[in-house]
Amino acid sequence: xxxxxxxxxxxxxxxxxxxxxxxxxxxxxxxxxxxxxxxxxxxxxxxxxxxxxxxxxxxxxxxxxxxxxxxxxxxxxxxxxxxxxxxxxxxxxxxxxxxxxxxxxxxxxxxxxxxxxxxxxxxxxxxxxxxxxxxxxxxxxxxxxxxxxxxxxxxxxxxxxxxxxxxxxxxxxxxxxxxxxxxxxxxxxxxxxxxxxxxxxxxxxxxxxxxxxxxxxxxxxxxxxxxxxxxxxxxxxxxxxxxxxxxxxxxxxxxxxxxxxxxxxxxxxxxxxxxxxxxxxxxxxxxxxxxxxxxx
Length: 296
Ligand SMILES: Cc1cc2nc3c(=O)[nH]c(=O)nc-3n(C[C@H](O)[C@H](O)[C@H](O)COP(=O)(O)OP(=O)(O)OC[C@H]3O[C@@H](n4cnc5c(N)ncnc54)[C@H](O)[C@@H]3O)c2cc1C
Prior knowledge:
With 296 residues, this protein is α+β, with helices and mostly antiparallel strands. The protein is built from six helices and 17 strands.
């Protein structure tokens, strides 16, 4: 089979695109560099009846060991742009980011430019598009509009009134976000820098950053922390294969070296069972499977 662009290649290992370092091959893997290229690739996939999935920074993603059927889209370099579009003397900075921009690049520029309140995103791995899909760290409150390309290749612009953000979730029709406009109050750059520096140091002291993971495995249930329940159930250090509940942060599952997707899923099931038995609480996964739905 041939694709209209050489941005598509077969059998790309997804372990190279996930922070867990887990995942078999994508049957097809596309890295388009422009919206036009993306639209062409999606139209071709639709014409051929090939299922499409998306990976951004892969920092909240679990990929199956046996790989993913169909096309996995990973936005290329052309989607890492960032432009401040508001006048220099405006009280609010409006910033247009390509969806593949690293969230930490945005934070770095905020510290230099005096874009306020970005300390909430300090140290958040992954890309801006992935952060919007996950409403990671409540990024939704800054979002003014997005551009999203549906899997049939239709390009749509949505304003914040058309988006619904909730805890670690944004309601969106299936598609690929290509750019995001964010608004931040302007503050003195020295103040932005100091707040971001403090947030970094708190994150470094509280999170598990030495071993591969996808951050928190489960969402916090109402009124309590998932990590606290997992810890109180005595599960810190619990291990299946090379997947282990972090000793440092009980809601992180880490890859000790050779963990498989099945190891992680089995450990997640074990955690869910134990927490349900002990506390009657059903933990909902925060980590997302790519390619196929697996019921936990
Ligand atoms: C060490 C560590 C610490 C973390 N700390 C936090 C934290 O403090 N708070 C927090 O909220 N999260 C945290 N996370 C989770 C993760 O970093 C965030 O959810 C992040 O914003 C995901 O971005 P990503 O680009 O890696 O998304 P991915 O993992 O690539 O994708 C996440 C979801 O978004 C979809 N997606 C990605 N890009 C696009 C796009 N352009 N268009 C459409 N769909 C897309 C994917 O299909 C998937 O469903 C942490 C993760 C790690 C590894």
